[in-house]
Amino acid sequence: MKRIAIEEHFSIKEHADQFRLILTKEYPIREVVEAEQQLHVEVRWLPASKYSVGNANILSGKLLEVGEQRIKEIEEDGIDMQVLSLIAPGVQVFDAATGTSLARKVNDQLCQIVHKYPNKFAGLAALAPQDPMGAADELERAVKELGMKGASINSHTKGEYLDDKKYWVIFERAERLGVPIYLHPRMPSPDMAKPYLKYPALATAMNGFGAEVSLHALRLILSGLFDEHPGVKIILGHLGEALPFWLWRLDNRWVRMPQGMTIKKKPSQYIKDNFFITTAGNFSVSAFFCAYLELGADQILFAVDYPLESNKEAVQFMEVLPISNSDKEKVCHLNAERLFKL
């Protein structure tokens, strides 16, 4: 069975170098955080840094190598194609000018990779929401000139969320271009980070990523974004960041506590109409079935979260799922081909 993995990460040397400048305080603009722990986990993949942990050097090598070696690895693991996106937190920790410039460099290099290996890689553009109009223009350039299939935005930007209407130009452009935006997790924003600091691991994929990006998704829904731009499509990883589990309760509170909620449909309906979810980094059969029963096979996409998760484990997870072959085909490649026009 063909498999297209759609949350697979990479980086470029210029991107890694800019992070080192931040970490050594040689760069004048630094992410606003309340403790070293936040930077420690946000850049855990950087080599040769006091913030690096565990297998950081291995991860950084895998992120920077996007060619024959990676292709050999994914083919051996049973994956036919990767949709690539810049590793979190992307370019969103920089000032607007640096972020915009770096996004262009990342997207130009990603375009070269895709053109060299068109049957193995597709790309999602990096954007710098710090400059909303610039990000919208870069999305259009990336799609029309570079062949990108959408964009990846790493949730909040310096503590600000995309439900603020100054960012809606990005969604308007994505809707007009007919491409999705992957809302990728990152550390909780500074305003919500403090309770995590005693146990820094909680702020990562253990809990903080899902809590932060699910909140972000709900803010987008309650803002009325999808009433004004009904064609916008958002992708959430990790089987929907637990939102499928909460659909009944979201609707129940929407009916009982409508204050400030002027949206036209139940919250669950927006998730069903405007969101896709992926299997990235959540290889739980029971969690999958919760999402599967709530959303159906048409809204679920196969992903690994490479190189942070195992290709082999992701493939084995899909193989043992007790669902029909036709639904497996949808999840493994047909939905991606439809959404990204592959």
Topology of helices and strands:
Layout: E1 4-10, H1 13-23, H2 36-42, H3 56-64, H4 68-77, E2 81-86, H5 96-116, E3 121-123, E4 125-126, H6 132-144, E5 151-153, H7 168-177, E6 181-183, H8 190-193, H9 208-222, H10 225-228, E7 234-236, H11 243-256, H12 267-274, E8 275-278, H13 285-295, E9 300-301, H14 311-320, H15 325-340
Parallel strand pairs: 1-2, 2-3, 4-5, 5-6, 6-7, 7-8, 8-9
Helix pairs in contact: 5-6, 6-7
Overview of the molecule:
This protein has 342 residues and is of the alpha/beta class. It has one domain (4-340): TIM Barrel (Alpha-Beta Barrel), CATH 3.20.20.140. 48% of the residues lie in helices and 10% in strands. It contains 15 helices and 9 strands. The protein has helices at 13-23, 36-42, 56-64, 68-77, 96-116, 132-144, 168-177, 190-193, 208-222, 225-228, 243-256, 267-274, 285-295, 311-320, 325-340, and strands at residues 4-10, 81-86, 121-123, 125-126, 151-153, 181-183, 234-236, 275-278, 300-301. Strand 8, helix 13 and strand 9 form a beta-alpha-beta unit. Helix 6 (132-144) packs parallel to helix 7 (168-177).
